[in-house]
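Q: Here's a chain of 108 amino acids. Please give me its 3D structure as tokens.
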Amino acid sequence: MKRTLLAVLAVFVVWSALDFVVHGLILGSIYATTPQLWRPMDEMKRGLMYVTVLVTAAAFVYIYARFITDKRLNTAMLYGMIFGIGSGIGMGYGTYSVMPIPYSMAFV
């Protein structure tokens, strides 16, 4: 149980850092070109964003801990890569299909 909780914490921290890099550094200037689509910074629900990342991290770790029997590093990396590609494409292109975001934002 302790290992699982530490894994959730680790995934949460890494995921939050990647969110900062992708959304803050890489996509920040693109977000600035479409302000009508986003809440102003002072109205963002940061607490809700962190809860969402924590729940997703917990589900990610639970799926691995419960259903993956081969617990080697390369299996974990492959699982993470497949999960990341699947959820990234779903979020990026799914959003692009229903919102007028720039294509470069969907791609990133």
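Q: Can you summarize the key feature?
A: Residues 2-107 form one domain.
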